[in-house]
Amino acid sequence: MLDIQRVREYLIDLQDRIVMGLEAFEPAARFIPDDWQRPDGESLSGLGRGRILEGGAVFERAGINFSDVRGQKLPPSATAHRPDLAGGQFEAMGVSLVIHPRNPYAPTSHANVRFFSAEKEGHEPIWWFGGGFDLTPYYGFTEDAVHWHQQSQQACAPFGDALYPRFKQWCDEYFWLKHRHEPRGVGGVFFDDFGADGTVDFESAFGLMRSVGDHYLPAYTPIVERRRDTPYGERERDFQLYRRGRYVEFNLVCDRGTLFGLQSGGRTESILMSMPPEVRWRYNWTPEPDSPEAELYREFLRPRDWLAEHNHG
């Protein structure tokens, strides 16, 4: 039986816990509330709780958003794989976050957990959960990638051994920049439409989403702790800003959530909070051979079975 209120309460609590967990790194900077509401009666109604930190000692920008919106008409990005629901009503809620550290040796991270329900006259109502988290390093460290994927596996483990390999592959395929022929980072887990086909009950699907949300901080904060104070210079900063350009390209060209938000008339400022505060593009740039920057492309920006390599290393 659907219990949308429990989902809403969990997501708000998760947002608060992640805010507290990341603020603990900052000596002075704090997340600023940016709440909004759209009244009923409009084509899109609902509310959001924005939490934005900028200019921190550790995090150059961090955004953690909760939103709960209802609409009278599903946008094209939501009906591409379910054309039978075109024109239907929907409710979508979730927590989405992107963290851009200041130090180039500390990776950018992204996480999202969400719940979606839709109905159309003459059709059975449907619901599903989605989510995941992925890591985008600028300088690769094997121990960081292994730790990230260990947490990814542990998030999925209570729900069956088959889920982590499946969701890892889904993540590798989803966060792939087709126009660049390269991955955005070292992946993690990604899933969507979980429960939509009726083979998974609500409690199990909700449990998986909670597990993924609850594993984000244990996956990310130890990596930040290791890399936050690593010395760096203009070379590393320049490469970080260049690679951030890939992040922008993916979000604006490929990301289903960004497209859904913009197409459904969502709040643009909240949707685009994932963008890094500073970024650079270079024309046809390539790293010097055998440089640390080249190593990122050679060793880290390719699909790898991090856990199998670690266990057999």
Structure report:
The structure is a single chain. The protein is an alpha+beta fold. It is 39% helix and 25% strand. It has helices spanning 4-23, 76-79, 142-156, 163-174, 202-214, 216-227, 234-253, 256-263, 268-271, 292-300, 306-311; strands at 32-38, 44-54, 59-71, 89-101, 108-119, 126-136, 176-177, 182-183, 187-194. The strands form 2 sheets. It has a 7-stranded antiparallel beta sheet with strand order 1-2-3-4-5-6-9. It has a two-stranded antiparallel sheet with strand order 7-8. Helix 3 (142-156) runs antiparallel to helix 6. The radius of gyration is 19 Å and the shape is globular. The relative contact order is 0.15. The model has no long low-confidence stretch (mean pLDDT 91).
**What structural category do the secondary elements indicate?**
alpha+beta
Widest sheet, order of strands: 1-2-3-4-5-6-9
Q: What's the mean pLDDT score? A: 91
State the separation between the terminal residues, measured CA to CA: 46 Å
The backbone outline, from C-alpha atoms, is globular
Approximate strand percentage: 25-35%
**Radius of gyration, CA atoms, in whole angstroms:** 19 Å
By oligomeric state, this entry counts as single chain
Q: Would you identify the regions where 5 or more consecutive residues have pLDDT less than 50?
A: none
- Overall strand count: 9
